[in-house]
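User: Hi! I'm working on a homework problem where we have to compare a predicted structure to a textbook description. Could you give me the structure for the chain below?
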Amino acid sequence: MNENKSVANPLSNHLRNSLRGLEPDTRMILFCIALFLASAWFLAWKIDRDLRFAGDQDSFTIAFESRDSRSLGFFIQNHAADQTFTYKIARDKKIERTDKKFVPQGARESIPLPPIETGGKVSIVVESEGGQRQEIYR
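Assistant: Happy to help. Predicted structure tokens:
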């Protein structure tokens, strides 16, 4: 029965015998390299899968253009059929500005805003014509 296994898989037997002839340190280095390559492949696959947006999802994304804590400029990335978005800018829950922006499906539109002058929480609420709502704040 063992003879059938060894005949059925001569490549794995050859590899196993070759590895047995190596020093333990060399085997450990080869194992670490193989583990690194497998991890790199997995992470590349996962990032690619996460960044590839499924076209059947009906949503939009908002985010600030800059990480600067004073900057309020933001963008809308539209993956939805809705193309008109209403945004409200509020400082300490008091609405300072309301406006609309047309963003075609699959497009990204920037909304430049002046920087924050004084303290207080500033929130930006964006709502699609279909009723989806998202909020970001500084």
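For your comparison, note the following. The two ends are 70 Å apart (CA to CA). The first strand starts at residue 60 and ends at 64. Good luck with the assignment!
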